[in-house]
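Q: My labmate handed me this sequence with no annotations at all. I'd like to see what the chain might look like in three dimensions before we decide whether it's worth expressing. Could you predict it?
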Amino acid sequence: MQHSITQATTEHTAVLDITTVVATAPYITAEPVRVSTVMPTENSQGLSPDNLILIRENKTWNEALSYCREHHVDLVSITTELLQYWVTERAANATSSHVWVGLRFTCSFHFWFWIRSDAGCYQNWAPGHGSDSQQDCGIAGAVETTGRQQWVSLEENQRLNFICYKCSGDSGEGLIHP
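A: Here is what I predict for the chain of 178 residues:
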């Protein structure tokens, strides 16, 4: 899989166009979703459970994204089975039925992507969700807090707890924020 990112500007804000080439089929996302410019110093294999923080405040997906970027780094991207395990450990302490993660659907091009633009083959979709299902606009990815704790697609205006990624050594808050 090959990625290229080019910066374009609009009248109001900078927008990144993300091109992903799978085999010979490119997809370009022109929806105004910003990809984080703050990249972790370690790859996903170098993360520890201490880098993930559950925020037990109910926010829409966009509000959760803004909160994570303002107070930490970003909504978490789940690109490995180990990260999934750590996320489910945090999600089990949530006060909502699901928790937002950094997974977004583009209705213009009909595919899911991680907002940190992490590449990975790992997937954990609940039956009837993800690539194999019919998707509407205005949806984002969440993790179930009980049961199999798989990924589901939900309307982004639902208010849920969420999981942020934070830098190592960030001692601003504990692993669970009330």
